Amino acid sequence: MNKCVSIINTCCNAVGMDQEQKHTLKSADKLFEILEYVLDEGEGTALSVAEAIDFNRSTVHVHLQTLVKHGYLVQDENLYRPSLKFLKHSERVRDRIPFYQKGKDEVDELAAETGELVNMASVEQESFYLLYISEGEKAIHNHLPGKQMAMHASAVGKAILAHLPTDDADRIINKAKLTKITENTITDEDELRTELETIRSQGFAVDAEEGGIGIRCLAAPVRSDERIVGAVSITGPTKRIGGEYEKSLQTKITNLANVIEVKMKYE
């Protein structure tokens, strides 16, 4: 009888195992860990990758050769680097996002009108990414598309975070490292939560030199069917963005978000 109970308990424990660990291959996990390392670093050798991820060098070499075979890495003697295949795939992914499809032209128009830098950012799996950048004639260039944003130190990140479901926002804040980037960066959870309440109330977020000294940014959330899909922002030097000009940009960026929402719903 005790043996049967033991077997039943073992089976129940197996069924109740963490969903993230079920139906995965350790070899595939390691391959993606290797690939992400090379993507983050820009290049690497079998030795440098093996040391970085603390894994057997010969096995790392096999994974690297597999990635070369499938065209995701390029080998130059002992050095491996990402291939341009990622560029093709990234453009395909972005082109299929409704937010990007309906918002790109509108973002270009606002950048041309104001002369400033106008961005689109999206959220996926609790991370924030720059989706598209349009530069006006006075634009200051400070980020590249695809860059993962610090949610607590960017206007787009805070605008998105403020409009996520409460449980999702709390989970992100609890897991996040509120790293200090400048002296203005919010690094206290309670202060960040208060900031998010202000953003929800006023309808837009402000990055007041929190992600970079001398840079000010305004962002507004973009929703689809009451679900937050991203944010749009306008960025410029602190010495230029202020006073009545900043108030006009607040109106323009919230109007831009509204226009994109309408286009996603009706076009």
Distance between the termini: 65 Å
- One letter per element, helices H and strands E, the order comes to HHHHEEHHEEEHHHEEEH
Q: Strand percentage, roughly?
A: 15-25%
Shape, per Cα inertia axes: globular
**What's the total number of strands?**
8
Which CATH-level-2 architecture of the largest domain? 2-Layer Sandwich
**Could you state the CATH homologous superfamily of the largest domain?**
GAF domain
Query: Strand order, biggest sheet?
Result: 5-4-3-8-7-6
CATH-assigned fold name of the largest domain: Beta-Lactamase
Number of helices: 10
**Residue ranges: pLDDT <50 for 5 or more in a row?**
1-20
- What is the assembly state of the chains in this entry? single chain
The major beta sheet can be summarized as: 6 strands, antiparallel
Number of domain units = 2
State the helical fraction. Answer: 40-55%
Structural class: alpha+beta
- In the CATH scheme, the class of the largest domain would be Alpha Beta
Mean pLDDT: 87
Indicate the topology:
Layout: H1 2-15, H2 26-41, H3 46-53, H4 57-69, E1 73-76, E2 79-82, H5 85-95, H6 98-114, E3 117-124, E4 127-135, E5 148-149, H7 155-162, H8 166-175, H9 189-202, E6 205-208, E7 215-224, E8 227-237, H10 243-266
Antiparallel strand pairs: 1-2, 3-4, 3-8, 4-5, 6-7, 7-8
